[in-house]
Amino acid sequence: MKGSLMALEMKKLHIKGVEIPIIYEKNTQLPLFYIQLVFKGAGGVSNGKSLGLSDIVSSLLNEGTKELGVTKFSKKLEEKALALSVGSGLETLSFTLSGMTAMQKDGIALLKELLQSPNFTQKALDKVKENSLVAILERESDYDYQASKILKSMLFKGSALEFPLSGTQDSIAKITLREIENFYRQHINLNSLILIVGGELEFESVAKELENALESLPQGKAVALKPIFANDLRQTKRLLKDTQQAYIYFGAPLNVDNLQKESALIKVASFVLGGSGFGSRMLEEVRVKRGLAYSAVMRLNATHTQASAQGYLQTSLKNEKEAQSLVQQVVEEFVEKGITSKELQEAKDYLLGSEPLRNETLSQRLGTAFTYYYNGLPLDFNKQVLEEISKLTLKEVNDYIQSHQEIKNLSFAIVSAEN
Q: How many angstroms from the chain centroid is the CA of residue 128?
């Protein structure tokens, strides 16, 4: 395959006196380009009392422009073999554009049209709200989703994570076009923007095109994101449904002081506890030794704004209490006794062997680099973490695990039936 690779690097773009960071990688292996606009603070954290607002805004942004509507706008994209989509999460809302390098200029021009004149009409909003309400109704019978929702409502009470990011039937029905327009004006701005750019393209030319596309955006103000802490109260909530098995979701706080220094330790601990599938403590005890569930997972997750330990399993109704008790026992023994030298070596072998495969494609590498940048870490943090993992000693890992007594404070959300 012809072409060459260039390492990821940070660039800058100045518009209206605002310095916009750009994560950039030139990659000439394939004649493709990838551009993402990420607006920090435009996710569910900014919904306020209008639950699901960010989600509805992003859905409406997928309905084309006011002038063309969704059908004609989509046709324009298809004619150029371009993909343009908008999505929102807890903290961010993002526009993602990709296609053949020869269509880069056309793609950015269409992106500009969407930014300047999104299809914020009552007809489009009614359609999006109806689709959202249907999805909410469908999730009523998704018991994994229901258990996860209950767990988050307990674990993150008092934060944006207490409520579903997609909103409720009541909150979605109340969202107005004025709220949509106000949210867009307030949160889609230059001071909140992070750009991700990569592919077979020259930075100077794409920078000029992006500057032209973005100059209509207001300077605005960046949203200051507050850390979200998990509740350390041990709670259990059961939701009774007409189901043939029990859906058990569980979680606890994870106190992280320095994400950069602790990431290698968190990865290894998470892998051994329940993130690795077969061979993990949770699956070995719950499935292999007791036969209580087909699958059982528990992972430690941490970002610069939140950290927690969460997991889930499904079991028969008659085994619900035993499975819940066993999960608590596995976590307590894990914290008190730590891991074995064999488990550490298996974790090292897997993490060092598989991690590079997760960054094979351009979008994967750019996505990983963005995650690191967003969390205040170096762009090449992956390399640093792998080096640290390779050098970890059993004592270092076990001292770290034993210092996190808080993950024993498990809350359980269970969707089950009377038995």
A: 22
Domains contained in the chain, CATH given: 9-214 (3.30.830.10), 230-416 (3.30.830.10)
Backbone phi and psi for residue 150, each to the nearest 5 degrees, phi listed first = -65, -40
Average confidence (pLDDT) over 259-273: 97
Q: What is the mean pLDDT of the chain?
A: 94
Structure tokens given for 33: 């380009």
What's the rounded Cα separation, in Å, for the pair 47 and 175? 11
Three-state DSSP at 119 gives coil
Residue 339 near residue 394, CB atoms below 8 Å: yes
Q: DSSP letters along 89-115, please?
A: -SSEEEEEEEEEGGGHHHHHHHHHHHH
Quote the radius of gyration of the chain (alpha carbons, Å).
Answer: 23
Compute CA distances 188 → 52, 53, 95, 197, whole Å: 17, 14, 11, 18
Contact (CB, 8 A) for 323 and 292 = yes
CA dist., res. 358 & res. 370, Å (int): 14
| pLDDT tens digits for range 127-176 | 999 999 999 999 999 999 999 999 999 999 999 999 999 999 999 999 99
The whole model's pTM is what? 0.94
Which of 222, 185, 184, 210 minimizes the C-alpha distance to 14? 210
Q: Give the number of other CB atoms < 10 A from CB of residue 197.
A: 23
Per the rule left: phi > 0, alpha: psi between -120 and 50, beta: everything else, 104 is alpha
Beta bridge partner(s), residue 246: 315
Beta-bridge partners for 118: 65
Pair 156, 231: CB distance under 8 Å? yes
- Taking alpha carbons only, the member of 289, 300, 277 closest to residue 329 is 289
Q: Are the C-beta atoms of 408 and 331 separated by less than 8 Å?
A: yes
- Tens of pLDDT, residues 307-333: 999 999 999 999 999 999 999 999 999
